[in-house]
Amino acid sequence: MGFYAGRKSACLMSRRGFADLPEVSTIVMPALSPTMTHGTISEWTKKPGDVCEAGDVLCEIETDKAVVAFDVQDECVLAKILEEAKGREIQVGMPVALSVEDKAAYEAFVEADKAGKIATPSAEALPSPTASSTSPPAPSLPASPPPSPPTPTAHLGDFALSPAARHLLHSRHLTLSAEVHGTGKGGRLTKGDVIQAIANGQVTAQAPRQAAPASTAPPPPSTPPKAQAAALAAVPPPPPGLDPAQVRIPTIQAGPGAFSDTKNSNMRKVIARRLAESKATVPHAYETVDCEIDAVLLFRKQMQRDFEVNVSVNDFIIRSAALALRDVPEANAFWDGPKGTAVPKEDVDISVAVATPAGLITPIISGSDRRRLSEISATMKDLAGRARQGKLKPEEFQGGSFTISNLGMFGIDEFSAVINPPQAAIMAVGRGAKRVRAPPYLPNQHAGNLKPYTATVMTATLSFDRRVLDEALAAQFLQAFKSYMSRPELLLL
Amino acid sequence: MLASRTLLRTALRGVRPTPGVVTHASRTFAAAASSYDLVVVGGGPGGYVAAIKGAQLGMKTACVEVRGALGGTCLNVGCIPSKALLHSSHLFEQANHDFKKHGIKINGSVEVDLKTMMGGKDKAVRQLTGGIEYLFKKNGVDYVKGFGKVAGPHNVHVKLNAGGESDLETKNILIATGSEVTPLPTCPVDNEKGRIVDSTGALVLKTVPKSMAVIGGGVIGLEMGSVWRRLGSKVTVIEFLDRICPSLDQEVGQAFQKILAKQGIQFKLGTKVVGSTVKEDGVSLSLEPAAGGAAENFDAEVVLVAIGRRPFTRNIGLEEQGIALDKAGRVTVDAHFRTSVPSIHAIGDAIVGPMLAHKAEEEGIAAVEMMQGLAGHVNYDAVPGVIYTHPEVAAAGKTEEELKAMGVEYNKGTFPFSANSRARAVGEADGLVKILSDKTTDRILGIHIIGSNAGEMIAEGVLGMEYGASSEDIARTCHAHPTLSEAFKEACMATSSKAIHF
Question: Which class of enzymes does this protein belong to (chain A) (predicted)?
């Protein structure tokens, strides 16, 4: 730059007069080059009380480029040094010293200062032309504008956040910490400011997150900001169909703690243990039978229409199974481990699997072979309701001689279940689905006369303990079950 | 010494011409009758704006201009007359070529009445230059008609047009002498004769030349070339470099060249002019490949020399004051537009930076504000540049090449006008909007537009850049439908995420 070739003259001095005090001038950090924003005082060559002639060096200032002598333009007496040598970086335009006109004024100044009457000037009192981006154009890095004191943005209200900044914060339910200030015009918060704040952890979550695991305490204050920020800023997986690129924040890594731990309830622990034991120790065997349940469906409809009695297909299944167990009592047994034998049970207590929010539970309908259909229905409704609320008494779900699990309402065609020890068997029932069937073979019937028909077919799979039941017995049971389901009038007997 | 200084300081202590203004203790002379606070040398866009602003800030101001009309190159032989001719010739082109596709039939032929067209242009210029004289009167700026020269740190010597001389004493001098056409030694300009002309001559041709060779593929050459092509000339642009408008973003420059070629402008790139001969009915140019090689002959009825402009800073008294000029002739100034003599300032085409009228205006205002102790400011990163061909080209900020050279990582988003509803509806679907933003913060770093209203559209982008906007900010701002501005919005969407309509 042509003019500033080494020595610099003090550029800005403002004058303030006090009523009975000497007139004090403020000497500010000068802009020694067009790009200078801050400087440090490396050495004061004058001390308070020294007379400074025009052209005397007041102090040496270190800039980003060089150490430059800062000299006095007007004659004055240095009154007070505000910024020590080799101290902090001072922004251009900020006060560095006070001066007075002459020696006499200096004596008065010292008096007044002792009495505490001299106020240190603040930056706002001085007009300071900004030097940063007014230099004639040179290629400049498009980094954020040079740092300036935070501008209060309260007056901007809603406009303090740029649209993109607002979207970023609100989508993640975050608020910025108080110390974050914007680098946009007038202190506005730009998208870049928000990205930076998130990376620095200068954000707090607005809504309580379900992520906090029950076993860990809230993050202690010593948690490094980045990990905490990562935990807060980890975006929940975008809804299906949303391009993840739409919600990208380039520098955020998802750190530990960005998933949720659901503790296993006691119930689930018990289920887990027992079923694992069952599958491991009980020799499971499986048999499947298809039942045509059109008769049941019709019967059920008639009960509904003519007598306003509501029973479900499941109630029919329970009753059919109960009668089948009465007919094939070997299936109503359990394996006595210590004894090493199958022990038949007197009562037909059927456990019916009910899905609850806490897990699968099997309330028992005791003496189901002795109960009427409507009784079974009412008992089932009551037990299932209380099961879902977790209000079953232990004896209501512990025990049982046989289990039925029905996934018809979930649209499952067929499945096989795991035996609940010490029971001997569990029957898994699928949905009733319309299927095309070939008629049963009858002797003396021409193959040509056989016509396929459609029927509502329900598949039942029996998982049985091979130690207690053999295939023949299981088959007998299933045949009995099937016959009851096919001809519901038999349930009356 | 001390006593008198103290007295002077005491005298000046209560003086505050305007609120918030710091009085620098200027202690060299007492107030004189014809002394000014500010004398502006040059009445172009930089100068007259600075003069008006100075007066508005309470300075006693004078403006010295030799042309006989205010407004400088811009108003008299630059921006204004060229835009007038560009518009008139555009209407002629539309009538001739575009009307029929809009179902408008012309019974007979559409002709050019050059005299009337020039008359309209002249009228616009006259009205505007007169308008500035009125503004001077309104704001109390003294208009001194003559050639001004710096005679001292506080003295401007004027050779008056009307005869005689005048000395103006002043606290501050602002050099706003602008620029002149750069001559091409192998092709000397003679506007009077009208064969080899510069931009000034190209604005006042008496007839439409059958052929025109434009030497220089920059903004001025392309604009004037467009005017005469539309009016009927066969235009060939001869350019030394391998591309037109080298400061343009390359992708945009190439698209622009294709459009101009489609319109019928011929290009001879990588070619230099090594000689010229003026004949009775035209000019014969001797051309050579820029890298050297065999010469070829090229004839044209009129040759327009438009290789650039250079600062007008010599013989105006600067050297005598010890004010340094760089090798391009530009005045060296500091952040406050001060030369090595603190009372002499310079702005506009006379100093470094893009030679644009609006840049000079911004600098003029900033310089004057800083003289008064206010915070003048020019944001050079957000100065738009516009080429007024059709379609127009407008740019602000950095090009892709500049960002690559600076090692800055960026996102890029483009949107073609062929996908914009309004552009299609009116049949003006050439061009695109291209946005460059910082990869991490998404702050907009560069905007490049080719489109029928690019010059107006760029204003939105510049405003955004002033506020440090990210491309997503503009993408989330509602734009009316159907407008061409939607293309700007969609380009911003393409930059930070995805466009919808492309």
Answer: transferase
What gap in Å lies between CA A413 and CA A405, rounded to an integer?
Answer: 13
Is residue A467 located within the same domain as residue A374? yes
* The one catalytic residue among B97, B102, B481, B501: B481
The rounded distance, in Å, linking the Cα atoms of B335 and A138 is 12
Q: Which of A204, A225, A255 is the last residue of a domain?
A: A204
- pLDDT tens, A31-72? 777 667 778 888 888 888 888 887 888 888 887 667 778 888
B380, B402, B476: residue with CB nearest A167 = B476
| pTM for this predicted structure | 0.58
B481 is catalytic: yes
Q: Which of A46, A28, A27 shows the shortest CA–CA distance to A38? A: A28
B400 touching chain A per CB within 8 A: no
Q: How far apart are CA B287 and CA B293, in angstroms?
A: 10
Boundaries of domain holding A193: 163-204
Give backbone dihedrals phi and psi of B176, rounded to 5 degrees, phi first.
-135, 50
Whether the Cβ atoms of residue B269 and residue B242 lie closer than 8 Å to each other: yes
Judged against a pLDDT cut of 70, whether residue B200 lies above it is answered with yes
From residue B486, how far is each of B389, B450, B490 by CA, in Å? 22, 14, 6
Residue A175: partners with Cβ closer than 8 Å, 6 or more residues away: A169, A203, A204, A206
Residues in chain A: 493
Same domain assignment for residues A470 and A373: yes
DSSP H or E segment with residue B441: none
Is B280 marked within a binding site?
no
Q: Are residues A341 and A420 in the same domain?
A: yes
Closest CA to B217 of B260, B173, B170: B260
CA-based nearest residue in chain B for residue A142: B445
Please give the Cα distance from B129 to A285 (Å, whole number).
Answer: 105
d(CA A58, CA A73): 10
| Mode of pairing for the β-strands spanning A95-100 and A350-352 | unpaired
DSSP structure string for A172-239: TTEEE-TT----SGGGPBPHHHHHHHHHTT-EEESSPPTTS-TTSPSPPTTS-HHHHHHHHHPPPPPP
* Element (DSSP H or E) covering residue A446: none
**Is the four-CA dihedral A185, A187, A189, A190 of positive or negative sign?**
positive
Longest dimension (CA), chain A: 141
State which fold the B385-496 domain adopts.
Answer: Enolase-like; domain 1 (3.30.390)
- CATH of the domain spanning B36-181+311-372: 3.50.50.60
In B153-281, DSSP assigns E strands to 155-160, 165-175, 179-181, 196-197, 211-215, 234-238, 266-268, 271-278
Instruction: Express each pLDDT in A377-421 by its tens digit.
Output: 999 999 988 888 888 888 888 888 899 999 988 899 999 999 988
Amino acid in the structure at residue A129: P
CA–chain centroid gap for A178, Å, is 24
User: What is the least distance, in Å, from the CA of B340 to any CA of chain A?
Assistant: 4
Q: Which CATH number fits the domain B191-307, given the four candidates 3.50.50.60, 3.40.50.20, 3.40.1280.10, 3.40.50.12160?
A: 3.50.50.60
CA–CA dist B437, A430 (Å, integer): 59
Confidence (pLDDT) at B191 = 96
Is B373–A129 a contact, with Cβ atoms under 8 angstroms apart? yes
